[in-house]
UniProtKB/TrEMBL annotation:
Organism: Dendrobium catenatum
Listed name of the protein: Trichome birefringence-like C-terminal domain-containing protein
Domain of life: Eukaryota
Boundaries of every Trichome birefringence-like C-terminal domain copy: 1-272
GO MF annotation list: O-acetyltransferase activity
Gene Ontology annotations for the cellular component aspect, listed alphabetically: Golgi apparatus
Family: Belongs to the PC-esterase family. TBL subfamily.
Family matches, as Pfam families: PC-Esterase
Length: 281
């Protein structure tokens, strides 16, 4: 099961595509139930699932169909609403990042949505991120049996919005980029918040009990300015019109990735980690 935001759904889609051709016709099915999407492979009695939880904890963005909320609020200590769906899974792959990036501070609710609470604290993004990941880590420690479940956490997936970052000041977002960033001297800066990377790396390694595999996809993905869906994407479930494609400054998607493409590499890394671990029988 992949748990997180649309970038983890992007990786889930990659995994399903990688498996699809190897599964006989009539032996696979696809079902969507609210926040949970299930791809079932009957011959192997196996499922590959995606669960929508962009902040991992409860938030006002939890509706899988109506979540385009700019004024985002999280319940930093409340994870049970989502985590009840994660139990008994053989492999759990988590992520959370892109939904944190629209503001420098995150609103953390006092109380709960069910109680109609309105008061919140505005906390520095990195501080709130660490608080949420500590909630997640406590859940892993208390609920994951390492003899039955392997846990992984993906580092952040970068975006490519500013062409000046890779030396193309005349470009329009990631539109018409056909090559990765090449011959770069020194670190790349495409706007990734590396403070959050440090938090995620440290917290995943500090989990007591079940070992959490930290899949560091960030650095290699930063080079791939050419791999986004750009104007070859969908918006609200529909392929962009010719008029929309002609306005890449507005419509180019420089967050999500083409398939086949970069998420396949992430899954190859995940596969390598799985097969190199001791078999649990």
């Amino acid at each position: 099961m992949f748990v997180g935001d649309s970038l983890n759904r992007n990786q889930w889609e990659s995994m399903v595509c990688l498996l699809y051709s190897a599964v006989p016709d009539g032996e696979k099915s696809h079902a969507c139930n609210a926040s949970l999407i299930i791809y079932r492979i009957k011959e192997y009695n196996a499922t590959v699932e995606f669960y929508w939880a962009p902040f991992l904890v409860e938030s006002n963005s939890d509706d899988p169909l109506a979540h385009s909320i700019t004024d985002r609020i999280v319940m930093a200590d409340s994870i049970e609403k989502h985590s009840q769906h994660w139990k008994g899974v053989d492999y759990l792959v988590f992520n959370t990042y892109i939904w944190w990036m629209n503001t420098a501070k995150m609103k953390v609710l006092r109380g709960s949505f069910d109680e109609g609470s309105k008061l919140y604290d505005e906390i520095e993004r990195v501080t709130a991120y660490e608080r949420v990941l500590r909630t997640w880590a406590r859940w892993v420690e208390a609920n994951v049996d390492s003899e039955k479940t392997s846990v992984f956490f993906n580092s952040m997936s970068p975006l490519h919005i500013r062409p000046v970052d890779w030396g193309n000041p005349g470009g329009i977002k990631c539109s018409k980029e056909k090559l990765p960033i090449l011959d770069r001297i020194g670190p790349i800066n495409v706007g990734t918040d590396w403070r959050m990377h440090v938090v995620a790396a440290n917290l995943t390694q500090s989990v007591r009990g079940p070992a959490v595999g930290f899949l560091d996809i960030t650095g290699l993905s930063e080079y791939r300015k050419d791999a986004h869906t750009s104007v070859h994407t969908i918006r609200q479930g529909k392929i962009l019109s010719p008029e929309q494609k002609a306005e890449p400054l507005v419509y180019a998607d420089c967050i999500h990735w083409c398939l086949p493409g970069l998420p396949d590499t992430w899954n190859e890394l995940l596969y390598a980690r799985i097969v190199s671990s001791p078999w649990r029988g």
